[in-house]
Every structure is written in structure tokens, then in C-alpha cells.
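Per your request, structure below.
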């Protein structure tokens, strides 16, 4: 990069020389904000249409600008555009190239600053990104539902403290993640409503003295709410310095990453020899360079691991913003890499987790063996006593004594005799051991939200319908 080349767009006039080489290197953003090119061009097209409407551009000039931007867009898409670091960022690169080809390009920046331009581009980019991410999350939800449906009769132990607690349908466990992911979608969609507001026309800080038609630009760029009402930022100073929307996205994504990480952790446990509940297809695992027998759940591990950078990006953004005086400050350029990284990371994690789960088989026998542990139904035995009229506290105590007896005699709970049970408490009747029939036990769990046979089938059907 040359030291003294004058950059044709922003520095002409005021500056005698271009920035020193290491200054240019330190301040440039083209190495990462080139990604905004499509949205930068879209914004410029809308701005040009508006400038034509208010008489700043002639029809011929507008057409020349449209053609020029179109051509530049095609070259960028084809990888044939040469980005110039001395032009700092995506905005100046595109505008400078346009102006080289189309003289009217020199009018395009009328009543526009890179401050409102970058705010616009990032909003446009993030709007698309949220839509894509929501689509990927729905795919992951579908993969979870499908796995649940294919194994609708599989029961596993549910765990608290990672200790066996009570039996649940595998589908119930999987649907817990579908619920979490749904809340993530709601948060992202809510964030979308605040991303979807047009800042263009705010200028550098104070709008413009020219009679811009902000609503036209907003309409052209589809900044409208569900009722078709145009969404415009209402304070130019806020509009050029606000990055709340980026923070919100990173926060919603951080929570999404938490959910993905928890799912990943379950997958890792389940794939391990100790649980051995699932088998991930070879193509979605990796081997060890040393131990020939290894098959590792790396997708899940990396999903869990990448949570760290997603959290980091959120904290970086918050820290970036906290001491900024009004209004735009160059610090804000640091928002993009954090935002891009979060968007790329969560989208890839969601996609890969969905692909992996779609290629995962359930080891039904191992699940059945684990779920057959009668201790999982100890609480059902207490409920049995409650049905017989005993208060829950003493019932809990009695079953505790039964569990202790089973341990002492080295028998599983369901192998105790009626006499042994009655030795602990006379309330136990002939039907007491029937509690340990897993099928009937599951049929009884039919409260809303419970893992009962009917309820889980209902929830699977509801999600299948909702996600189709
Ligand atoms: N690359 C800059 C950013 O991302 C664009 C805005 C620059 N504005 C300015 N007045 N220097 O924030």
C-alpha cells in the first residue's frame, strides 16, 4: 500500500497527503466489511432513487448509477473486483469505483455520511442474517422432532444432578431442546423488529438541509412493520451511534449458544461408552491420530467450545459501547467482526448439529436397559401410598426405607416380596409391585408438559405441525 496516495473519496480537499502506511493498516476495515457489499449497493440504489425523486439526480444519471452499481456488484460476486485498502472500507471502495466509471457517482453521497450508511448496511445485513438463522434453527428443531418420532417408544432415565431420576421418553428429552430453540427464535424475531428500522437520512449526525424523502428510501428497502408501516429512526444522533440492535442479536445468540452447548453436552455423554445411548454416523465424527478405536463427537464438542467466543463477542460489544460519547466514534468500526463472528458461529453450529442429529441412531437396547432400572419408579411407589391415603412426607420416608432394604438385601426394588414391603409398612397391598410396570407408569404421566405416553405423542404432533 502506498504511503502518500491521496484517497479520492473522503480525504480530497482537506488533506495534503494520504495516511501513513501503518495508519492505513490500522484504520482500514475493508478486510472484513467487504462482506457488506450487497447491502451497501442496495442502500445506494434506494438512495439514488430518492435523490432522483427530489431532483438531485436526473433520470439519466440515476440509470447510469444503477448500471454502474449493478456492474460492480457482478464483479464483486464473481471475485473480480479489486478491493483497495487505501480506500478504507466497503463504502468508499464501491463509491470510488462507481465514480471512476460514472461521473454522476460523485452525486451519490449527497446528504449521506458513512455514519448513516454503515448503520444502514449493518441493519440490512443483520436482517437477512436473522432470517437465515431462523431457517436453520427450524431445521434443527425438525431434526430433533424427527429423531423423537422415529424413536417414539424409546424410554430413557431422566437425570437430575446427572443421577438417574425418573423415566422419560427420549422424545420428551429432545422436545425440551425444541422448546428452548423456539424461545431463541422468538428473541431473534423480536430483535429483528428493532433491526428493521431505517437510519438513512441521519447524515453524519444531524440529518441534512436537503429535502430528503426518508420514507421512500425506507419503503424501497422494505423497512416496514407487519402492518406495512414505514419504520424510520426518530433521532439522527441516536441513529448513527446506536448499536443496541447488534448487542441484542449477540445476546440472543449467546443464549442460543448456551442451548446448543447443553444439547451438545447431552450428545457427547450419550455417545460415550458409559451411556452408549446413541451412535453418530461416521461422517459426522472424527477419529484419533493415535488411538485407532476412537470415534469422537467433534461437532458437538466444537459447538460446546465455540460458545466461548459467542459470549466473548457479546462482552466485547458491550464494552465497546459503554464509554462512547455521542455520537459516531470510530470505535464503532470494531462492532463488525464481533457481530460477523457471532452470526457465522451460531449459524454453522446450528446447521452442523442438525446434520449430525439427522445422522444419529438410537441404541434402543441400551436405552431400554437403562430405563428398566426400577429405582426410577421409587417416586411412583410413594405416589401409590399417597393414593392409599398416606401423607406424602411419611410416604417418602417409607419408600426410603424400602430402598434401603433393597440395597441391604442386594435386590432390585421390584424384586422385593410383598411380605418384605409390608414388613416396612402395612399400607402396601398386592397391587404395590404393579407400580414397577414401566408401560403403565408412563401412561400415568399425562399432565400438560409431563413425559406421559399420550402427552408426548401430542407434543410431537404439535411440533410436527408447527414446524411444517
Ligand atoms: N468503516 C466505518 C465503520 O465501520 C464506516 C464509518 C466511518 N465513518 C467515519 N466518519 N470515519 O464504522
Amino acid at each position: 500500500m502506498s504511503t502518500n496516495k491521496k484517497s479520492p473519496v473522503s480525504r480530497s480537499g482537506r488533506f495534503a497527503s494520504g495516511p501513513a502506511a501503518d495508519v492505513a493498516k490500522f484504520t482500514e476495515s475493508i478486510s472484513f466489511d467487504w462482506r457488506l457489499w450487497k447491502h451497501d449497493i442496495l442502500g445506494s440504489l434506494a438512495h439514488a432513487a430518492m435523490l432522483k425523486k427530489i431532483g438531485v439526480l436526473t433520470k439519466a444519471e440515476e440509470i447510469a448509477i444503477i448500471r454502474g452499481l449493478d456492474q460492480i456488484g457482478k464483479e464483486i460476486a464473481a471475485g473480480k473486483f479489486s478491493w483497495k485498502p487505501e480506500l478504507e472500507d466497503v463504502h468508499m471502495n464501491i463509491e470510488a469505483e462507481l465514480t471512476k466509471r460514472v461521473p454522476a457517482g460523485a452525486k451519490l453521497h449527497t446528504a449521506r455520511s458513512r455514519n448513516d450508511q454503515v448503520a444502514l448496511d449493518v441493519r440490512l445485513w443483520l436482517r437477512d442474517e436473522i432470517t437465515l438463522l431462523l431457517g436453520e434453527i427450524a431445521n434443527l428443531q425438525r431434526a430433533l422432532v424427527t429423531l423423537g418420532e422415529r424413536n417414539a417408544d424409546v424410554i430413557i432415565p431422566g437425570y437430575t444432578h446427572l443421577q438417574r431420576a425418573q423415566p422419560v421418553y427420549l422424545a420428551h428429552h429432545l422436545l425440551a431442546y425444541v422448546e428452548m430453540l423456539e424461545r431463541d427464535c422468538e428473541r431473534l424475531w423480536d430483535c429483528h423488529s428493532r433491526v428493521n428500522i431505517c437510519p438513512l437520512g441521519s447524515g453524519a449526525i444531524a440529518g441534512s438541509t436537503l429535502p430528503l424523502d426518508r420514507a421512500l428510501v425506507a419503503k424501497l428497502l422494505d423497512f416496514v412493520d407487519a402492518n406495512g408501516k414505514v419504520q424510520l429512526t426518530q433521532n439522527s444522533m441516536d441513529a448513527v451511534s446506536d448499536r443496541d440492535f447488534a448487542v441484542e442479536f449477540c445476546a440472543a445468540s449467546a443464549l442460543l449458544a448456551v442451548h446448543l452447548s447443553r444439547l451438545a453436552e447431552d450428545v457427547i455423554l450419550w455417545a460415550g461408552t458409559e451411556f452408549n445411548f446413541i451412535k453418530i454416523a461416521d461422517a459426522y465424527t472424527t477419529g484419533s491420530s493415535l488411538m485407532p478405536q476412537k470415534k469422537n463427537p467433534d461437532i458437538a464438542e466444537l459447538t460446546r467450545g465455540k460458545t466461548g467466543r459467542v459470549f466473548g463477542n457479546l462482552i466485547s460489544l458491550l464494552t465497546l459501547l459503554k464509554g462512547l460519547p455521542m455520537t459516531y466514534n470510530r470505535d464503532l468500526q470494531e462492532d463488525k467482526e464481533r457481530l460477523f463472528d457471532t452470526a457465522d458461529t451460531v449459524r454453522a453450529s446450528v446447521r452442523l448439529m442438525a446434520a449430525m442429529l439427522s445422522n444419529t441412531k438410537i441404541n434402543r437396547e441400551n436405552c431400554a436397559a437403562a430405563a428398566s432400572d426400577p429405582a426410577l419408579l421409587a417416586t411412583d411407589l410413594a405416589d401409590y401410598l399417597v393414593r392409599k391415603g398416606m401423607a406424602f412426607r411419611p410416604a417418602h420416608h417409607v419408600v426410603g426405607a424400602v430402598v434401603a432394604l433393597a440395597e441391604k438385601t442386594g435386590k432390585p426394588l421390584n424384586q422385593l416380596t410383598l411380605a418384605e414391603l409390608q414388613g416396612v409398612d402395612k399400607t402396601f397391598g398386592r397391587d404395590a409391585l404393579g407400580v414397577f410396570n414401566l408401560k403403565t407408569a408412563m401412561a400415568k404421566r399425562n399432565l400438560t408438559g409431563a413425559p406421559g405416553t399420550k402427552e408426548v405423542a401430542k407434543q410431537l404432533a404439535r411440533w410436527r405441525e408447527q414446524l411444517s
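Residues 29, 33, 89, 114-115, 118, 330, 332-333 surround arginine (CB under 6 Å).

Regards,
D.
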